Amino acid sequence: MTFTEEIKRRRTFGIISHPDAGKTTLTEKLLLFGGAIQEAGAVKSNKIKKGATSDFMEIERQRGISVATSVLAFHYKDKKINILDTPGHKDFAEDTFRTLTAVDSVIVVIDVAKGVEEQTEKLVEVCRMRQIPMIVFINKMDREGKDAFDLLDEVEQKLGLQVTPLSFPIGMGYDFKGIYNIYEKNINLFTGDSKRNIEETIAFEDLSSPELERLIGAKAASTLRENLELVEGVYPSFDREAYLTGGQQPVFFGSALNNFGVWELLDCFVEIAPPPRPKKAEERVVEPSERQMTGFVFKIHANMDPKHRDRLAFVKIVSGTFERNKPYLHVRLDKTLKFSSPNAFFAEKKEVVDQSFPGDIVGLHDTGNFKIGDTLTEGEVLHYKGIPSFSPEHFRYINNADPMKAKQLAKGVDQLMDEGVAQLFTLELNGRKVIGTVGALQYEVIQYRLEHEYGAKCTYEPFNVHKACWVEPSDPNNPEFKEFLRVKQKFLAKDKRGQLVFLADSAFSLQMAQQKYPSIKLHFTSEFE
Ligand code: G4P
What we know:
Helix content: 25-40%
CATH superfamily of the largest domain: P-loop containing nucleotide triphosphate hydrolases
Radius of gyration: 25 Å
Number of strands: 31
Structural class: alpha+beta
Largest sheet: 8 strands, antiparallel
CATH topology of the largest domain: Rossmann fold
CATH class of the largest domain: Alpha Beta
Number of helices: 14
Bound molecules: guanosine-5',3'-tetraphosphate
């Protein structure tokens, strides 16, 4: 296969949803259909169970599983499909945001009864801002839920999407009879058992044919005809270009648990979803078809075994062919590195691989060289964009609880921050360290890991911050900037990269600062033009 064909056949995507909508179930069914696993239940849920805050074994178990399920690859038809796992738990939302920088498209799963939920809103917003192509899958049609048209409205309004249904349910819950596949113009009838084999598929182009009555009964037939007429009248027809540029989102209905509507989704997905897309670096846009290898680290996973401290850095290949034992430039360190055992991922296994192509993810063993966002090239100085830090939600001082272990603590904190577990801020006034996280759960994870992996102990102290804002560098002689630095000294810190951050203690003080110092630009993410 040529290099161009290798690129064209890759589909790298993520499934996003609010917890419990059916992401794990759908992932498993896709793997099942791809022949990558033989039975349901093979993919372990990476969910953190409720109450996990006090159950460290659960957190550890979760970390182990999430390595295995970080990338799930399989072949379907002539395509190589890479599913990147995105944690649904909101305390790990930042992990998911970073993973979204490595996908070329996403599938959004929505529960038919619950409709659009909070976590879905946040994740879809990120995808929308980045113009990532999205397909929506409305799941659990075997249960009573919202009316299909009401749901489509809700998706448009709450998620700001422009939808067009490519399949439509025939009934729902107890009366769920099947799916009309608008994309392929055929009907799939539901028999209610959850075997992997697909039920009868009936090609059906002429909706006015009395055959429809015979198949699904008079009432369902007339409702379906009315619904499809309405779909045609209200929604634009599918426009691939609009889908690829984030302007239109096709919708499928089904039941992942019952394998229903999943073929329709997968068959259409492999046809319409984009192959690896070009990516912006600070210096220029890189095309996948370029021969020189480039890639970036979007995730770092620590080894669970404290005796082997090495980590696995997940690199998305953007262009060229990644080869085992070939020297690559680690741009940030200006250092050449070779990798003797890069891992590729297949189903739930990982194995050493000689070559990887754009769209693929390789796992590199790392002894502390990598940070999230690092770029690898064949020599060109490139910095991939798009892995910003967001303002954390929680802030606490971190104190050393064992004076003999100060070094271990510093090293542990440093490495955990590189992994992206949380963000570290150092106060300008007194050098005290503050840890910012998305969820309260991370504080326990950090404390536990510092102790078990680094032999260090820490305690926390509350620190009241409303929001962290990154301060755009300004002329040091600008009197307004000088005054800002002086007056706000108590609230200023440096992040890990040395960028200046304003830790506003309330919405009011943030607003006041913006009014009083209009020439100082404050940003809610660490990356700005
Ligand atoms: P998540 O990864 O998005 O968090 O969701 P997951 O797939 O774990 O699914 C959440 C629950 O919803 C699971 O039930 C799962 O069996 C169920 N589910 C998924 N798809 C469907 C569907 O099409 N129809 C129906 N009726 N249920 C569905 P659970 O009881 O929480 O877990 P389990 O004990 O069955 O694993």
